[in-house]
Write a structure and sequence with these properties.
The protein is α/β, with parallel strands linked by helices. The chain has seven helices and seven strands, in the order βαβαβααβαβαββα. α2 links the parallel β2 and β3. α1 runs parallel beside α7. The longest helix is centred in the last third of the chain and has 27 residues. It is globular. Bound molecules: glycinamide ribonucleotide (GAR). The site of glycinamide ribonucleotide has 18 residues, from α1, β5, α6 and α7.
């Protein structure tokens, strides 16, 4: 078994999922969140990481696509890269270097309501607009396309007639916080 299974988190915004994951693995026997990356210097996820004393880094699009960035991910020795509300496509060279080692969470039941432009509240607005009776979360491996890799886990929740995008987002967030850390832990266990 590895002494420590090293996780990197990539997030663009508030980072409630990132926090649930950092919480789960702070003081974990053999899994640690080693670094939190963001494409947004103002993202609140960076504040959340500080609370856990986890190093952070910010990159722009050009840096994300550079060979230096890929090499730094490899040199850091990450075992798993977790996208937690990360809104940019992951470059193909990172996907291929970390094949089956990059996970994303999506706030709907893929393959429905996925793809470019389908993120955050846009997803919930579309689900409500179509008067769906249920929605949920999907955790999947990341490939070169948006929301397209093999699905690892899904959980469903009801959509109420009275729901607003915010109330549905809250219900979905609860599911995400409950299941994402759990699924990550299972994958680390399998790979150890
Ligand atoms: C989460 O609901 C996540 O599923 C979604 O962004 C939110 C981030 O919230 N991701 C996508 O829409 C990706 N297509 P958080 O910053 O509070 O974790």
């Amino acid at each position: 078994m590895n002494t420590t299974y090293k996780i990197a988190i990539l997030a663009s915004g508030s980072g409630t999922n990132a926090e649930a994951i950092m919480n789960r693995f702070s003081n974990h026997e053999y899994i640690a969140v080693s670094k939190v990356y963001s494409n947004n210097a103002d993202a609140f996820v960076l504040e959340r990481a500080k609370k856990f004393d986890i190093p952070t880094a910010v990159f722009n699009k050009q840096e994300l696509h550079s060979e230096e960035f890929l090499n730094s991910l490899i040199e850091e020795g990450f075992d798993l890269i977790i996208l937690a509300g990360f809104m940019w496509l992951v470059p193909a060279q990172i996907v291929s270097a970390f094949e089956n080692r990059i996970l994303n969470i999506h706030p709907a039941l893929l393959p429905s309501y996925g793809g470019k432009g389908m993120y955050g509240h846009f997803v919930h607005e579309a689900v409500l607009g179509n008067k769906e009776k249920e929605s949920g979360i999907s955790i999947h491996y990341v490939n070169e396309k948006y929301d397209d890799g093999d699905i690892i886990f899904q959980a469903k929740c009801a959509v109420m007639e009275s729901d607003t995008p915010d109330s549905l987002a809250n219900r979905i967030h609860k599911l995400e916080h409950q299941h994402y850390p759990e699924v990550i832990e299972k994958i680390c266990l399998q790979n150890n």
